[in-house]
Amino acid sequence: MKISEAECRVMEILWASTPARSAEDIVAAIADAQDWQEATVKTLLNRLLKKRAISAQRDGRRYLYRAVIKRGDYVLAESRSLLDRLYGGRVAPLVAHFSERSKLTKKDIAEIRALIEELDRDQ
What CA–CA distance (Å, rounded) separates 21 from 71? Predict the structure, then answer.
């Protein structure tokens, strides 16, 4: 499932909130970061409904929306897609690219080392 950057911003609000949220709630939550009108948010919600990424339940005169797909599942699919398209499905070239193109902080390097050590222990 392809979710656009704008749709992903709406999804982030829904992933972060329980229970379901109304369009007005989403507009209010996104207002600081985006200058979107309610109509824009409703358009994005309708797109996400068509993609079956979210569900809607009638609550009086409004609808309440909730995420159907889990954030972790979406992140995994997007990560795999990125790795497949750009690095042949391999993680090492991705890390090498970032180490060459942008400075990894000491904290980044320590976290990568810790992850590798954990992976070694698990295998």
Answer: 16
Whether omega before 93 lies within 30 degrees of 0, making that bond cis, reads no
79 confidence band (pLDDT: 50, 70, 90): very high
Domains held by the chain: number: 2
User: What DSSP string runs through 2-41?
Assistant: ---HHHHHHHHHHHH-SS-EEHHHHHHHHTTT----HHHH
pLDDT in tens, 10-51: 999 999 987 889 999 999 998 878 888 889 999 999 999 999
CATH code of 45's domain: 1.10.10.10
Residues 14 and 51 in one domain: yes
Domain holding 102, by residue range, is: 91-123
CA distances from 111 to 59, 62, 100 (A): 45, 45, 17
Please give the mean pLDDT across all residues of the chain.
Answer: 91
Task: With respect to residue 97, please indicate whether it lies within any of the assigned structural domains.
Answer: yes
